[in-house]
């Protein structure tokens, strides 16, 4: 996991902004709505964001590449690449997250997936979790999700929805940009969701569909099916 952090003027220090995934030694994949103007960095290999753990690797962000068709109002094309100032060292704490090799594969409704991040753990909280958290969610079909959101935003083929039928667990503020893992495969990016966990309002995720995988290849200059990884995180 990657913590995408921004420099807080009030605290004079870096604070967690969004999650992300290291897909190449110098490239992190996150959400476009996380784009920030100012001093930004990425922390890899962290479990706690309150401690300077020996496992952590910290990098300045050299370039931000939001998708050119990103539309914040519609949550459309909410995907961004971050180029790090140097190559990450792959070890037991920092690993590459492999992108899906089947560019046309969707995620079947009912599939159990996992999302991880440092997002807030309390309703209406703006403070990130101190430690990395994970939660299991179930994919919801697009027709139901569109009905739940009343078409605002419109859930397209480039999005999927996932949630908890009890409305107890979900991705939340600060989890944006983090990876959704389904059957061991990196399938989507945390995009949006309700202000508080709601069984009728699942989270919205940007599906790593063919058009996004092709765009990643164009920006990074590396074909996604040639990417290898030693593990998920």
Automatic annotation (TrEMBL):
What is any Pfam family matched here? Trypsin
- Family annotation (Gene3D superfamilies): Trypsin-like serine proteases (2.40.10.10)
> What CDD domains has UniProt attached to this entry?
Tryp_SPc (cd00190)
**What does the UniProt keyword field contain?**
Disulfide bond, Hydrolase, Protease, Serine protease
InterPro entries, A to Z: Peptidase_S1_PA, Peptidase_S1_PA_chymotrypsin, Peptidase_S1A, Trypsin_dom, TRYPSIN_HIS, TRYPSIN_SER
UniProt-recorded Gene Ontology molecular function terms: serine-type endopeptidase activity
Positions of the Peptidase S1 domain = 1-221
BP GO annotations: proteolysis
Record-stated family? Belongs to the peptidase S1 family. Snake venom subfamily.
Name this polypeptide is given = Peptidase S1 domain-containing protein
């Amino acid at each position: 996991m990657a913590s995408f952090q921004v420099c807080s003027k009030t605290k004079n220090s870096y604070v967690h902004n969004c999650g992300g995934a290291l897909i190449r030694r110098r490239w992190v994949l996150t959400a476009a709505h996380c784009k920030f103007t100012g001093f930004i960095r990425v922390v890899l290999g962290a479990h706690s964001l309150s401690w300077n753990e020996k496992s952590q690797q910290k990098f300045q962000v050299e370039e931000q590449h939001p998708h050119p068709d990103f539309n914040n109002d519609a949550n459309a094309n909410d995907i961004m690449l971050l180029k790090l100032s140097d190559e990450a060292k792959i070890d037991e704490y920092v690993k590459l997250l492999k992108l899906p090799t089947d560019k046309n594969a969707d995620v079947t409704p009912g599939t159990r997936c996992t999302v991880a991040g440092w997002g807030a753990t309390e309703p209406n909280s703006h403070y990130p979790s101190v430690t990395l958290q994970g939660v299991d969610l179930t994919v919801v079909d697009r027709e139901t999700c569109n009905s739940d959101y009343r078409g605002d935003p419109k859930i397209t083929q480039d999005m999927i929805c996932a949630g908890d039928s009890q409305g107890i667990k979900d991705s939340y503020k600060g989890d944006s940009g983090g990876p959704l893992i389904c059957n061991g495969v990196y399938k989507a990016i945390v995009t949006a969701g309700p202000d508080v966990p709601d069984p009728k309002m699942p989270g919205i995720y940007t599906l790593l569909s063919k058009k996004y995988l092709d765009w990643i290849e164009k920006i990074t200059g590396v074909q996604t099916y040639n990417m290898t990884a030693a593990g998920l995180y």
